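Hi V.,

You were right to ask for the full record rather than a summary. Here it is.
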Amino acid sequence: MSSYERVGDVRLWKGMRVSDLINVYKEIHGFTASSLYEATEILKEGVKEADLRFLSFTGNLVATGLRGLLAQLIDEGFFNVVVTTCGTLDHDIAKALGGNYLKGYFEADDLELERVGIHRLGNVFIPKDSYGPLIESFVRELVYRASSIKVEWGVRELLALAGEALSKDPNSIIGVAKKRGVPIYVPGVVDGAFGTQLFIYSQFTGFKLNPLKDMKELSDLVFQSKKSLALILGGGISKHHTIWWNQFKNGLDYAVYVTTAVEWDGSLSGARSREAISWGKIKPSAKHVTVYGEVSILLPILAVSLLETTQ
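Predicted structure:
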């Protein structure tokens, strides 16, 4: 038993830095504290060592104030590939165009919200005129502009074109990614307002979307990389697409999952990082951890620990 470190009793002090708090979690050790500490260590090493660094997240996060933080992590160079959902495009565009997202509450009367024209996303209220009409007008102009350049587009290159129109918003994920030359891959692009509008306006313009172009780009990125890292926030298609492509280089070298889903139903969203080893999506030698908790609380802690390494 002498090989095990002793659990420490902790105290806090005024003026603590986040790095101090992370070390407190290390001493607390029990339960989620140890995995959160491990996640910060993996991310700090992975950002330094990996040339291919994935940021994977679900669109619901972009409806919250985390939108700005996600854009900041891209803008400051911590991650150089984004894999996300159509919801990210929807919320990012709506907010960039002045959409008024409001602080609501989970217990709201949804029948009343529908009557007054408000969508509810958890405890975020989104007035209907701050969502659908803004996305529709943006995509209409985007499709007509794209069609004037060429007929067939990959999703990633279309989003780069979209980023030119959103570049004035420093909190726009699409705009910042364009500025930094970071590709955004959205494998489920048709599953949302952005994708639906692409379909509608393709009927009038001859515009064509070719997702296979994105697959070719992703395969090239993976095969050319020396080491890869992924910070995966939430589950679903963005999580799977990230780990799926990394299996073709024998798996990720560094992986941090943040999730509230459980593994007992066999879902991909709840699958722990260790399960991916059996599929070749994470290397047996990789440094990896699954952190159980809600992203709006945990991401700021993880992000500040990265930011402090650059100071």
